[in-house]
Design brief:
Helix content: 40-55%
Number of strands: 5
Subcellular location: Membrane
Distance between the termini: 51 Å
Largest sheet: 5 strands, mixed, barrel
GO cellular component, one term: plasma membrane
Order of helices and strands: HHHEEEEE
Number of helices: 3
Strand order of the largest sheet: 1-2-3-5-4
Protein name: Membrane protein implicated in regulation of membrane protease activity
Organism: Micromonospora eburnea
Structural class: alpha+beta
Main location: membrane
């Protein structure tokens, strides 16, 4: 049961990190849970966890990253949190350097102002400059506000 709990915790943590790293260890934990279900001793379960995790990290992750990089270089659309950068969002709660809430394609995200001197009122359109963890750093939307993007994103 411990392996299943560990696998679920790692899989949920992957949702928040989106690095495709923790999910590899979750796969190892689920494989160890399978070994435990077949009656393997704890030492063998730990070995199964280590081997499957190492194989996933060593073999699968580079393939996934290579395909993702090829897709980005080939002009295909980004995916994951990278796809959010540059999108327009609606301010749902006032956004400043310390807190805020925006809506991106129907999903609520915590937000912070990219520029510490700026704040955005409810109803304003902003543009996502960068995503850090589960927080979007936003700037005035270049379409609805004169002035455009900060110099670092032009």
């Amino acid at each position: 049961m411990l392996w299943i709990v560990l696998g679920v915790v790692l899989a949920v943590a992957e949702i928040f990190t989106t690095t495709l790293f923790l999910i590899m260890f979750a796969a190892g934990a689920f494989a160890a849970a399978g070994a435990a279900a077949l009656g393997a001793p704890v030492a063998l379960q730990a070995l199964v966890f280590a081997v499957v995790s190492a194989l996933c990290v060593g073999l699968l992750r580079p393939v996934i990253r290579r395909h993702a990089q090829a897709a980005l270089e080939g002009g295909e659309r980004s995916f994951g949190v990278d796809a959010l950068e540059g999108t327009s969002a609606l301010v749902m709660e006032p956004v400043d350097v310390g807190h805020g809430m925006i809506k991106i394609d129907g999903e609520l995200w915590t937000a912070r102002a990219y520029d510490a001197t700026r704040s955005y009122a409810v109803g304003e359109r902003v543009q996502v400059i960068k995503v850090q963890g589960a927080t979007a750093l936003v700037w005035q939307d270049e379409i609805s506000t004169p002035g455009g993007l900060p110099e670092t994103k032009r």
